[in-house]
Amino acid sequence: MKEKIGVHYKYLMDMLDRWNDRMYYIVFVYLKVIMDIFFVVVASQIYQYHYYEVHGNAIKYILSWVIYLVLVVLMPKKENSIKTFFLHIQLLIMVLPMLTLYAFTENRSTIYILQVSMAIVLEILVLKEGKKEYKPVRIKNLKAFVSTFMLFLIPLITVLTINYGGFSGFSAFNAEVLNNIRANASYPALLSYLIMWCIHIFIPFYIVYCLEKKHYVLAAFLVFDDIVLYMVLAQKIIYLSLAVILVVYALSKTGHFIKLMHLAVCVGLTAMIILFLVEKSDVSMLIIICVSLLGDRFLFQPALNKFLYYDIFSQYPKLYFSDGMIGKCMGLTNIYKYEPGQLAFGYVWNGRYGESNSCTGYLGDGYAQLGFIGIIIGAVVLALLVKYIDHYCDNIAFGILAAIMALYVVMLNDGALQTVLLSGGLFIFLIFLAIYTEVNKADRKGLK
Q1: Per-residue pLDDT tens digits for 130-161
Q2: How many domains does the chain have?
Q3: How far is CA 204 from each of CA 18, 154, 198, 251, rounded to the nearest angstrom?
């Protein structure tokens, strides 16, 4: 059995080694075709509410292809580069679903999709491959202390979370009680931040770091701790982030991560379409769950919410950061009673404001804050952050960087850039990079 797997794996790696530009473009064309088919044939049929109703428009469909192909041509193709990885995964989970919704649903703004496309092009230009301008920041002699401190801090946060929120056990996996678990939870302000940092950066970072250093028992303990936190908090981002970092870390070890990522999405969407068509008269719960998690929650719902943010804040006053900490520091008053996500939910569901909080992403939030200028500022700041992180590729294992960056791209598909920086712990990741960076061979020669 192992020999057969080894033969198939070697064949796949040999095929990827021979990958040329023609194959690259064939896969990208197929990816857009299969994403469109998946939405029209599967997602829109399972989720039959009016924002997913299919209304074909030839002009918008052609424009979606033009935008997509321009971005594909401009995309860098270098493997084992954080800049390339970021641009490709962003295109896959943020931009491509938006283009699909733009082409196949009514009232999706051409102006907004062009603004988003301009922001992505600007990111590509900022992240263009070139000579590295400076060596990464390195904080010496703190690695052992910080690792030991985190080994005690993570279990402590878990115990305090259980103490304040209670332990729901396996009932946290029951969709019918999720909202009740979340509604009944109440934590002190400092502990709330520590919990968010724990699930967004502490545990994910140390899982992949332990895997890289072959500390498998400690990695398994951290995975167990993550599952325990889910049984308390019942937040889907916990098991989603766990799946993301483990899959990305494993694929990064092949040396063909970008290619395998696109192939995996093509195969996955194709398989779900085939299974849905085979079971169309009696669709199984497994297919519904897969479409719910991957199709609706992961791809199309965040894309739809970005359009909704544009619809709302193109008609009503912008936020100008009055809804968050930046606005409070500047003495700004939020004119809206509800959070932006609650406004978007009420906008969709006939005025049910305040009942739920629709997620957005940095592209939607940027427009809500400052309009087109907000999108551009967010894109430039994010591109500069990615460029800074890319400087660590020679000093920290690519698998660690790719796994955590993938997690943050998922968060940026749901949340504002400033929220991800603070609550999501992106600033802590930047500190970890400086602490855990290692001296490479070129640096050692320079030190002699």
Answers
A1: 666 667 778 888 888 999 999 999 999 999 98
A2: 1
A3: 33, 11, 8, 16
pTM of the shown model: 0.86
In a domain, 263, yes or no: yes
426 phi, psi to nearest 5 deg: -60, -35
Name the band, by pLDDT with cuts 50, 70 and 90, for residue 354: low
- Domain of residue 383 covers 2-136+250-447
Look-up of token digits 């003495």: 331
Pair 51, 105: CB distance under 8 Å: yes
Q: How many residues does the chain have?
A: 448
Question: For the segment 365-387, what is each residue's pLDDT rounded down to a tens digit?
Answer: 888 888 899 999 999 999 999 99
Closest CA to 298 of 32, 114, 79, 39: 39
Report the candidate in 19, 416, 434, 425 with the shortest Cα–Cα distance to residue 194. 425
The CA distance from 344 to 312, in Å, is: 7
Please list the alpha-helical segments (H only) found in 198-256.
Answer: 203-212, 216-233, 236-252
Residue 159 belongs to a domain: no
Q: State the DSSP H helix or E strand holding residue 176, giving kind and residue range, or none if neither.
A: none
pLDDT number for residue 445: 40
Q: Is the dihedral of CA 389, 426, 341, 178 positive or negative?
A: positive
User: Would you say 386 and 127 are in contact if contact means Cβ atoms under 8 Å apart?
Assistant: yes
Is 232 within a domain?
no
- Condensed to tens digits (0 to 9), the pLDDT of residues 30-84 reads 999 999 998 888 887 777 665 777 887 899 999 999 999 999 999 888 877 888 9
Residue 443 has pLDDT above 50, yes or no: no
Count CB neighbours of 20 within 10 A: 8
Dump the DSSP string for 139-153.
Answer: -TT-HHHHHHHHHHH
